[in-house]
Structure of Glutaminase:
Amino acid sequence: MDNLLMEIIERNRNLVRNGKVADYIPALGKANPEDIGVCVADLEGNIYKAGKYNKKFTIQSISKVIGLMLALIDNGQDRVFEKVGYEGTDEPFNTLYKLDLPHVFKPANPMINSGAIITTSLVKGNGEEKFERILALIRKIADNPSIDYNHEVYMSEKSTGHKNRAMGYMMKSMGLINGDVESILDCYFKQCSIEVDAVDLSKIGAFIANNCKGLDAYGKIDREKLTSILVGIMSTCGMYNFSSRYAVEVGIPSKSGVGGGIMGVVKSKMGIGVYGPALDENGNSSVGYGIMKDLSRELKLNLF
Amino acid sequence: MDNLLMEIIERNRNLVRNGKVADYIPALGKANPEDIGVCVADLEGNIYKAGKYNKKFTIQSISKVIGLMLALIDNGQDRVFEKVGYEGTDEPFNTLYKLDLPHVFKPANPMINSGAIITTSLVKGNGEEKFERILALIRKIADNPSIDYNHEVYMSEKSTGHKNRAMGYMMKSMGLINGDVESILDCYFKQCSIEVDAVDLSKIGAFIANNCKGLDAYGKIDREKLTSILVGIMSTCGMYNFSSRYAVEVGIPSKSGVGGGIMGVVKSKMGIGVYGPALDENGNSSVGYGIMKDLSRELKLNLF
Amino acid sequence: MDNLLMEIIERNRNLVRNGKVADYIPALGKANPEDIGVCVADLEGNIYKAGKYNKKFTIQSISKVIGLMLALIDNGQDRVFEKVGYEGTDEPFNTLYKLDLPHVFKPANPMINSGAIITTSLVKGNGEEKFERILALIRKIADNPSIDYNHEVYMSEKSTGHKNRAMGYMMKSMGLINGDVESILDCYFKQCSIEVDAVDLSKIGAFIANNCKGLDAYGKIDREKLTSILVGIMSTCGMYNFSSRYAVEVGIPSKSGVGGGIMGVVKSKMGIGVYGPALDENGNSSVGYGIMKDLSRELKLNLF
Amino acid sequence: MDNLLMEIIERNRNLVRNGKVADYIPALGKANPEDIGVCVADLEGNIYKAGKYNKKFTIQSISKVIGLMLALIDNGQDRVFEKVGYEGTDEPFNTLYKLDLPHVFKPANPMINSGAIITTSLVKGNGEEKFERILALIRKIADNPSIDYNHEVYMSEKSTGHKNRAMGYMMKSMGLINGDVESILDCYFKQCSIEVDAVDLSKIGAFIANNCKGLDAYGKIDREKLTSILVGIMSTCGMYNFSSRYAVEVGIPSKSGVGGGIMGVVKSKMGIGVYGPALDENGNSSVGYGIMKDLSRELKLNLF
């Protein structure tokens, strides 16, 4: 298996050329597009890995899955989806305009930025506590207590994230956000700046694939339902407006981030973590997409 | 199994009250909301059924799956998706406005009306031939040579379908449609007026679930790929802008129509046909949704 | 005065380079961008002219003023503006998308295509009669019985006008249009193809500037009101989404057409007709705009 | 004249019933809808007034004219209109969505909130200085050194103005705003909270009607041009998306505010100030509109 992973990496390495490292903040622009890693974690606890699987990168939008998970744990499905929809969208991750159309009352889904700001706002906790709870949950489900956020990335996101700020205040004006917008965004920028590697992602994926087992400390949870929500939403919205094409070509519920990561969930089987910082025009890792496509075919993981 | 199906029907009968029979044309308004049927066809050829499984209704948007199938057979994936996207959308089935935004070059996906008009336009054949080929394909995959269209419904759709006409001419002006718009719409209105029952739908679903086996007469086809496209698109776009929520709650790739039908595909296992003409606010059968939810839970069919 | 007009033409001749002759249909593309004409008609019946003032060109969107005039005569202000708004817009003349937004119930104003199709639909008359009444009104107010439409341009507009067709069917589906869409569009394409010269435009402008005097044959009309509507709408919407800038720089209520004409109305003083077929990016005559600016300054006509 | 004004007030008093006092902040909701005042200031220095002409109210959006004036004085026409358009709009004053459409690069015009935030950002001065310069200009052109802002209204606007904040950050992300968004909004909220009466408004109107004479202290200014810009923009955009209808019915370039004021400019003749806090559905004073209509007819002021 490790050999297969290495082979798949090499087969897709040339896709680096189809992408470009995110550079809207300097800290991201420093990533090396040739750093490619992959890790598969099955539900028996086996870990298969290849390439730069232990290269750290920021989790970025993949944190939206964790934010949604904790918002659901803290509030339940109904209260979360009062404020954010379950609708795929043909708009990019940072779309704002629909929130200002009179027939729209909430963000389309929790995987676009506006929707993720909502789920962050719904995570319980005041000030720092909100972020600490998100960090604690990631550490737990990745089984890695050393996970932390990158202060430089966080500070850069915070100082340039004006469009996210616009979304935050727009949703405040719509009555969707309680509490202080700046403080919620602060948490959001921090959660996006959490550093992980491909191994961490694969373990988070495996945790979800295993029906979110191991959350006893969080009280009574309908784990089946929690998992269906997370995986169903990842499947239809996880790869931004490329989600539907990705469903066709890969067929593994996944979530990507502009840090270059992709996390895949194969229910009852495995979690997958991929890293490749060059991004295609949809903001997904270009190499990562190729690797997921090959993994899906080689291991017959396509759901569709 | 037949008992289970009957029980599920009865359990969901009260959902009739949450819906309303489509009445934009008189022929549809005559449907009896209490006529509820369900049929499951497995890949061994067994048929399980309950209720008004042999009640005829118009296939409406479920024909979009057949239109896409034939467009793919006739043109291949690349040429079809030059003119229509693979993107889920948070807009309703009859949305038009995005086609007039300067950054949008094609309909979001083949399951909304505009996208389906594109796939109809791509089906090979002049004049009547286009429709005859669609009808022949449905008859074949449903294994029912008696399937035909309802002339009254067709004439009504044709005389009131001005918004579809607007879409057609808009896409003509965008260079997405070759040929005569009225003649393409004529075919589209006819394909929507094809009459089926729940048994037909379950067999069409089973055909797709069986990797579209049996298309030899159509030449060399990558059946795996064809199936992934159909099922992937149904999963992310098949229930209109309710698709993502439906993925969470049901997790069976499905397509609905305003005639009251829902067709489900459980890959390598079975096809499902449900009928219940009362529609919820998303245009999906209200009872049908409840039945699909129960079937998914009882038979453990949720992919997510 | 004739000398001043000639001088102003020469001063602005180089603006030809800032524009491009419309070429969406071949007949328009044949126009010579160096053909520039201007004519001023005062209310005493004096005519001042220079350049190619008797060069014929199609009236195009300037006909929207006549269409509005006749719709108002036939229906009154209230019934016309039930179906079209009085709102300036920051969208181009052929915008469609807003009609599909749920909070929009009618076209923004009668100077964009969708709004003009509405006013054409409101002109009384069956089949050919509708167009004949529009033509008769133009002949009367331009005091030129030889005015007619260009059959080649009409046929070209008709065969390529798919976006206008999309608007027509969209508005039919919204309940804004009674009668047959194709027949209304036929009239619209014909009215746009009417041929005039700068002298004709100046006389139409003078007619309006003179409070629409001379419509006795049309029955009892509140001429003050009719004039205020026409001039107020021209002032705020007549130059497409350039109207507000034009108000600042020129300050003469005007209407332009892609045939290269601009008609100006200086109330109680004069009408102005300008011709220059090279169009700027807003679809207005580039030379015509320069000439109007100079005329406004030299003759102190700026209202603002 | 004073009698005519009183008569016009009484004639329109019943229009109070067609409107509603703005109540998005408590301080505005306290206004008495029966307090109606009007004042006309001609260019010879005569002042005619009637009703509650000395009732103080907040200037609100009428301050956008002053903000535009000072931005033009400080930067010139070209630099201002690089960042804000000259386009009328069919959207309400607080519209945001277009800024997020890919073909839109700046707010439509300086009379909607987003555009006014731009002009405020362009007024020279750091921190408090920006506002002090706006206040000084209003005091000067209204010839009333006692004008000041209402601290309670300012604090309320500041604490509830989240949609304006969203616009500010959106435009920051578009590169349209230099400097700190919160500090610019602070100035914007203060300028909207400036208290005036109908007399002040009439004098500001008369100042503009008199070609902005008296700005020598501000350096060399093309006063003709400055005036054309202000009046041209008021004429096409000053009454929000009602501007075009208002042009037809009143024909006096005007600007309204949700405080209940309307300021009219009759070039080379007079300024008009009207107060009536009940607002119609477009956010314009319902009584004020009626009064302006009657004034226009009685004094023959309609430009169109």
The longest helix of chain D spans residues 63-81. Strands of chain D lie at 20-21, 37-42, 47-51, 57-58, 195-196, 254-256, 261-266, 270-275, 278-279. The radius of gyration of chain D is 18 Å. Chain D touches chain A at residues 95-101, 162-163, 165-170, 172-173, 181 (CB under 8 Å).
